Amino acid sequence: MRVNEIIELFQSKGVKATPQRISVYEALLSLKHPSAEAVLERVRSILPTVTVATVYNTLDCFAKAGVIERVLTVDNKMYFDTNLSRHYHLYSEETHEIQDFYDNELSELIRTFIQNRKIPGFELKDVKVQLIGNIENY
């Protein structure tokens, strides 16, 4: 994704495009499901004076604006995802690696199941699934 595309994305989500924010987003794109610490390390290789607070605040801003999604794993560690299309996550307990998994049939199965249950007072808005195991060569 080029810088002008990142700026357009930010504008569409109401996020101000600053050099630090652009660098954080570029780091997110290059790392695939990174932790905040990994993002900080990558950004500091480009902008050595960026602060921890700037990176954490930027990640929070992005998540609240819908630019990225947070991915909380079973080991209670937060990762971030720039892929906003409908997908699920395969999480490796051994390596802590996260990979995207696409399955429209699973999506429809879950939605239909929940709708048929008619849970009082509950309206399904989204489905987040994390499959936990060990990833070999997916």
Automatic annotation (TrEMBL):
SUPFAM superfamilies: Winged helix' DNA-binding domain
InterPro entries assigned to the protein according to its UniProt record, in alphabetical order: FUR (IPR002481), WH-like_DNA-bd_sf (IPR036388), WH_DNA-bd_sf (IPR036390)
One biological process term in Gene Ontology: regulation of secondary metabolite biosynthetic process
One Gene Ontology term of the molecular function aspect: transcription cis-regulatory region binding
PANTHER family: FERRIC UPTAKE REGULATION PROTEIN, ZINC UPTAKE REGULATION PROTEIN
Name of the protein in question: Fur family peroxide stress response transcriptional regulator
